[in-house]
Design goal:
Blueprint: E1 5-9, H1 18-31, H2 38-45, H3 50-61, H4 69-84, H5 91-100, E2 104-109, H6 113-123, E3 134-136, H7 137-140, H8 149-158, E4 165-169, H9 172-180, E5 184-188, E6 202-204, H10 210-213
Parallel strand pairs: 1-2, 1-4, 2-3, 4-5, 5-6
Helix pairs in contact: 1-2, 1-4, 4-6
Length: 218
């Protein structure tokens, strides 16, 4: 295998959270007077931090979101997670294969640490990630697609050169950020097709295909 570290995006790659989170976000924005469909939420906000929601709403409407927007959104998303969140099919087998072969892995996410941990607990992935393997936009003050800050921070903390890292992403913003960090990046196409994830090193639509791309037997 040509990599020393596999960096996973979290939402949509490890946990099947993007449909839940984007439905909640679209509904909440619409409730606040900013009509947003699920498809528009995926297009505009998938893979980005909540800061982008504030910025785009202000840019489009000239209005600021409520002061408690982040807190309310977080609570609603966590409530949806508690009811419905599941791991991405095949991801535990992939993590098991990496562990068995001594390949390091971690995750980066635009979500905060609490939301990541809630999702992992509900989806049954909390045993796979030590706290020091989890990197949030909160850690660097900037989320994806802030050019490569978050990915470079993760690689630095894990003690691996960027060129020896490979990233698994499912959003165009994440693909751009990982590529700008000088890392190979594989686009996971379960939600968005390959042509909406330009610039990736390669593409796959079933998590069980990832070990083959990494030349790692399951």
């Amino acid at each position: 295998m040509g990599y020393d570290l596999v960096i996973f995006d979290n939402d949509g790659v490890l946990v099947d959270s993007e449909p839940l989170a984007n439905n909640v976000l679209a509904g909440y924005l619409t409730e606040l007077g900013h009509p947003t469909t699920y498809e528009e939420s995926v297009r505009d906000y998938m893979g980005a931090s909540v800061r982008r929601v504030h910025e785009l709403v202000l840019e489009r409407s000239g209005q600021q979101l409520p002061a408690d927007f982040d807190e309310t959104l977080h609570a609603r998303i966590c409530a949806a997670f508690e009811q419905e969140l599941k791991p991405v099919p095949g991801v535990e087998e992939v993590l098991g294969a990496l562990t068995a072969h001594g390949i390091g892995y971690c995750l980066v996410s635009s979500s905060g640490h609490e939301r990541i941990r809630v999702g992992h607990r509900v989806a049954g992935l909390d045993g796979w990630f030590e706290e020091e393997w989890i990197f949030s936009a909160d850690d660097v003050g900037l989320g994806k697609p802030a050019p490569p800050d978050l990915y470079l921070h993760a690689a630095r903390q894990m003690g691996v050169e960027p060129a020896r890292c490979v990233v698994v992403e499912d959003s165009p913003r994440g693909v751009r950020a990982a590529a700008s960090a000088g890392m190979d990046v594989y686009g996971y196409t379960a939600l968005l097709p390959a042509d909406e994830l330009p610039g990736a090193t390669g593409y796959f639509g079933d998590m069980m295909q990832l070990p083959l791309l990494l030349q790692l037997p399951v």
